[in-house]
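Submission sheet (multi-component)
Chains listed below:
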Amino acid sequence: MNNISPASRARTPGKSPSQNARVQVTPVAPAEEHLGKLCSTCGTAILSSDTIVVCPVCSQPYHHDCWKEIGGCGTYGCTAAPVATLKEDVPEDVFTPGWTAEKKCPECGSSIIANALVCKVCRSTFPTERPMTKEEWRDREYDEKELNKIKTNVIIQFILSTLGCLFFIMLPINALAAFTDSWIFRVKRLPPTLKVLFYASFAISALWAAIAAVFILYSMVF
Ligand SMILES: [Zn+2]
Ligand SMILES: [Zn+2]
Ligand SMILES: [Zn+2]
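Outcome: structure written.
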């Protein structure tokens, strides 16, 4: 256990994840010395039935799932810690050690320890230990894993939108995504390049629809 305050343990933002090569660990059964220790990622005690990994750098034990979930050690300053990508815009001194020891998971609403990076109930992972509001959570940036899937979606949507004959499918899909902001991916959460690609798809499918409309009108008049 460490007694560093949650605020001082907040991760340094702004570094790319590639700067932090993932540390190789071996999942093992907990040894006597690990039992009852708290996994600092989810805040729950390590039981004899758990599979754990021990950080090769700072020797802190973690649930194997918790380690996988955040991609490294949860101890601040440990060189095996993963690097978060959220831009921190809240001043650190807002959170003092007197601040509540629990926070609400913004995904499932369960009470979890204040500095947890993984919800022990729904296993959502947080880019920061700072409690996130529902809005922040909803509008957070996609993490690497999600982003790879979504990138493919946006690119497919773009390719299909350029095919003129599909405008009657693609225009409603693109419009739904743009106006409801909840179709397959949330447009608001896309990184700028994908956002541009998405709006280009929207514009192209709208253009095809306009061309088709002109064509139909023209053939009706003449
Ligand atoms: Zn854990
Ligand atoms: Zn460590
Ligand atoms: Zn949760």
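Remark: Residues 144-221 form one domain.
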